[in-house]
TrEMBL record:
Chain positions of WD repeats: 188-221, 266-298, 311-355, 399-432
Name of the molecule in the record: CDC20/Fizzy WD40 domain-containing protein
UniProt cross-references to Gene3D superfamilies, sorted A to Z: YVTN repeat-like/Quinoprotein amine dehydrogenase
InterPro entries recorded: Cdc20/Fizzy, WD40/YVTN_repeat-like_dom_sf, WD40_CDC20-Fz, WD40_repeat_CS, WD40_repeat_dom_sf, WD40_rpt
Keyword annotations of the record: Cell cycle, Cell division, Mitosis, Repeat, WD repeat
Record GO terms (molecular function): anaphase-promoting complex binding; ubiquitin ligase activator activity
Domain called CDC20/Fizzy WD40: residue spans: 134-430
SMART domains: WD40
Highest taxon of source: Eukaryota
GO terms for biological process, alphabetical: anaphase-promoting complex-dependent catabolic process; cell division; positive regulation of anaphase-promoting complex-dependent catabolic process; protein ubiquitination
Gene Ontology CC terms: anaphase-promoting complex
Membrane-crossing residue ranges in chain numbering: none
Length: 458
């Protein structure tokens, strides 16, 4: 047999050859193309693994070369026993259309999973009782103070009278960080930095102290206010930028690295600044005042006191402010006794979206948890915690443990537990923010599955 005849025979016996395809008696759904691969017949997962996995050489002296060669040959075969090819140029036989490496089945499962994610998940059940109750003697019952904050180090900082304590939620250890010397000069606000390395403490006499959480030492004292510092907030994207609000009606931005810490001073509020909160992206600052107003600030325009938006829909002081973790530029604000509600704002458009009693955002579900004090609106939510769906703002349920009003809420690092501080001098821990539901887990799994199917081969 001459060279040309042998080559011709090899071409005809090649299972992947276009000539073999045309002369085959097998019926195909579509014939295929010699230049365009048929993706529905390609094992993209195996191809992706072969292209990206780094082979690890492992030599076992118990196995001889013949055995290792046999294993290598079997590992490189496809599901039909033929040598695995990353590119398949043949058509799809009708008789094996549903069994080609399960690609069609996987796609049907993916489509079903996507369909199920559109269905509304069943409403979660609230815990029947609190997870834990801690005594908080000398906790000051003052609406205009921020007495506690839960840091990313799983440590809860709480001001009790003239003292400030750190409670470790992992081992329940309690550490006394500081005690004010002057009787009328006590902590009135606390806030952990994003890294939880520093803790800032505001005082009744206008000063701010910056503490190192690891060494429990005072780093420096910040100046800029003339009266009580009732609210503080760190910029999430710049751990050196700190904003503070005071009874002197001013907002002060600090750079904790430089000797002259005051970088900007704003005097727009006409009453005490009792609420401050930087957005999750660090590009907007929300401020609430005792004159019932909310201002939205952009960092680049703060030095000129030009606010982005001004909201005047509340009828009482605005202390509670929280940015939504699910939607960009959505802010929740809570009013005081005569108002008794939280309003949902689009900070980009400057519009009010909803008005309802509620506050602390759930990071795992689209929900808001409210902590209630006194109310003149006639509702029955006094001293309770209420959970609301977002954006429908329908009540899911309520929790009650405090004998007096709830004056502060804070959330754990993992976003599962909320602590409420009550005027009855107790700290109550609630496992109210459950983990992601099954549907959300399916979406995450589906995203990872689809990402594996993205092949660089076209």
């Amino acid at each position: 047999m001459d060279h040309e005849s042998r080559l011709q025979r090899l071409v005809e016996t090649d299972w992947y050859s276009p000539r073999r395809l045309l002369s085959s008696p097998i019926q195909y759904d579509f014939p295929g193309d010699r230049f365009i691969p048929n993706r529905s017949l390609m094992n993209l997962d195996q191809a992706h693994g072969l292209l990206t996995a780094k082979p690890k050489e492992y030599y076992n002296p118990k196995f001889n070369d013949a055995y290792r060669q046999k294993i290598a040959e079997n590992l490189t075969l496809d599901s039909e026993g033929r040598p695995f090819r990353m590119l398949v140029f043949r058509g799809s036989p009708k008789s094996s259309r549903n069994s080609c490496r399960g690609i069609d089945e996987i796609r049907r499962e993916d489509a079903e999973a996507l369909k199920n994610t559109t269905k509304q998940s069943p409403r979660r059940k609230l815990p029947k009782q609190e997870a834990r109750v801690l005594d908080a003697p000398d906790l000051i019952d003052n609406y205009y103070q921020k007495n506690l904050d839960w840091g990313n180090n799983n440590i809860l900082a709480v001001a009790l009278g003239s003292e400030l304590y750190l409670w470790n939620s992992k081992n329940s250890n309690v550490q006394k960080l500081l005690q004010a010397v002057e009787e009328d000069n006590y902590p009135t606000s606390v806030a952990w930095s994003g890294s939880a390395r520093n803790l800032v403490v505001g005082y009744a006499n206008s000063k701010l102290e910056l503490w190192d959480a690891e060494t429990s030492k005072l780093v420096r004292t910040l100046k800029g206010h003339k009266r009580r510092v009732g609210t503080v907030s760190w910029n999430n994207c710049n751990s050196n930028v700190l904003s503070s609000g005071s009874l002197d009606k001013s907002i002060v931005n600090h750079d904790v690295r430089v000797s002259n810490n005051v970088t900007c001073r704003i005097r727009t509020h006409t009453a005490e600044v009792c609420g401050l909160k930087w957005s999750n992206e660090g590009n907007l600052l929300a401020s609430g005042g005792n004159e019932n107003l909310i201002h939205i600030w952009e960092p680049s325009k703060m030095s000129s006191s030009n606010y982005l938006h001004r909201f005047n829909d509340h009828s009482a002081a605005v202390k509670a402010l929280a940015w939504c973790p699910h939607q960009f530029n959505v802010l929740a604000s809570g009013g005081g006794t005569k108002d008794g509600c939280i309003k949902i704002w689009n900070a980009q458009k400057g519009k009010c979206l909803h008005s309802i009693c509620g506050l602390e955002w759930n990071r795992h579900h689209k929900e808001i948890l409210s902590g209630h004090g006194f109310s003149e609106s006639g509702n029955d939510n006094n001293n309770k915690l209420c959970l609301w769906e977002y954006p429908s703002m329908t009540k899911i349920g309520e929790l009650k443990s405090h004998r007096s009003r709830v004056i502060e809420l804070s959330q754990s690092t993992d976003g599962l537990t909320v602590v409420s501080a009550g005027a009855d001098q107790t700290l109550t821990l609630w496992d109210v923010f459950g983990p992601p539901n099954n549907q959300e887990s399916k979406v995450s799994y589906l995203d990872s599955l689809l990402s594996l199917k993205i092949s660089p081969i076209r």
